Amino acid sequence: MATPINESVRYYRRGVTRVLWVPTILNKNSPTRAELDAGTALEGETGAMAGWQTTSGTVPTPALGSRFTPVVGGEITAADSSLTFWASQDGDDVRLLLIREARGFIVWMDEGDVPAQTMDIFPVQVTSQAKVRELDQAAQIMAQFAITSEPAENVAIPAAAAP
């Protein structure tokens, strides 16, 4: 009999997931705690998100000797990605942080900032700060991002610095 997959400990994302804007990470596959701590936590003002995943294409590899066309893994791409924040009536909000053309990293700690758990690190450039204008909704700012290189996925979260 096949071994069953581990049973998941299911959770509700709100109140658990951390998302950071980190201006500088020298090695996205192994960021330091100091680099992460120098970032800005965004989850407290994040009202919506879209994208933030990678997908892989395939390439057909036909052969004359068979009617079946096998495929191999191909390009890896990232979805168009955005974070939508609550706007402040005095203008003191995400617009002061995520300035168009700014380069940095969006770090996703899906299960929280827990050492040895995993995080995904997306190298990004801010492409816009769109004002979301809806009649019956609180004011929002949508920051859109270009993913500038392959994200580092399932990277171990480093331990907190010793006091």
Quick rundown:
The protein has one helix at 33-37; strands spanning 18-22, 40-41, 46-50, 54-60, 71-78, 81-86, 103-109, 118-132, 140-147, 152-156. The protein is mainly beta. The protein is globular, with a radius of gyration of 19 Å.
Question: What keyword list fits this structure?
Answer:
8-stranded antiparallel beta sheet; 42% strand; 163 residues; mainly beta; two-stranded antiparallel sheet
Descriptive report:
The protein is mainly beta. The protein has a domain at 18-53 and 79-156. The protein contains 1 helix and 10 strands, in the order E-H-E-E-E-E-E-E-E-E-E. It has one helix at residues 33-37; strands spanning 18-22, 40-41, 46-50, 54-60, 71-78, 81-86, 103-109, 118-132, 140-147, 152-156. The strands form 2 sheets. Strands 1, 2, 3, 6, 7, 8, 9 and 10 form an 8-stranded antiparallel beta sheet that branches. Strands 4-5 form a two-stranded antiparallel sheet. A hairpin with a 7-residue loop joins strand 8 and strand 9 (140-147). The radius of gyration is 19 Å and the shape is globular. The mean pLDDT is 95.
Strands, helices and their partners?
Elements: E1 18-22, H1 33-37, E2 40-41, E3 46-50, E4 54-60, E5 71-78, E6 81-86, E7 103-109, E8 118-132, E9 140-147, E10 152-156
Antiparallel strand pairs: 1-2, 1-7, 3-6, 4-5, 6-9, 7-8, 8-9, 8-10
Number of helices: 1
The protein's oligomeric status is single chain
**What integer is the average pLDDT?**
95
Low-confidence stretches: none
Overall outline: globular
Largest pleated sheet? 8 strands, antiparallel
Structural class: mainly beta
Secondary structure: number of strands? 10
Give the helix level as a range of percent. Answer: under 10%
How large a portion of the residues is in β-strands, by DSSP E? 35-45%
Q: Roughly how many Å is the radius of gyration? A: 19 Å
Terminal CA distance reads: 49 Å
Q: H/E element string? A: EHEEEEEEEEE
